[in-house]
Design a protein that fits this description.
single chain
Length: 114
Amino acid sequence: MLKDGVVLEDDSDRIIVNQYSFCELIKRLLTHYVGISYEDASKMVAQSHLAEPISNVMDAGLLGHEYPYYWAMNLYYGEAYWEKGIPAQPDDLEAYFELENSIMKHYNLNEPFE
């Protein structure tokens, strides 16, 4: 079960993982950029490594290192999706961050990693 507010710590770092919010954001980005239904996006995310428990700071850091856009495109189009003609990142990053913020506000989502 995905949830928000999971605190992970190691010797030098502490991170709060909001995995529910992270996965919901990925689903909404899939519907926006790829055009699939929310139901299909939900199934895709649920069957992916993104929905597996995040149990350490290193794993959280690896997921949080990329834009959620990357994870959405990687999930749908596969590894090295940019070699298939899909932009590596959104052409207009300002518009992308506005979209991301709008999704998070509209669906009451937390920052994926704090």
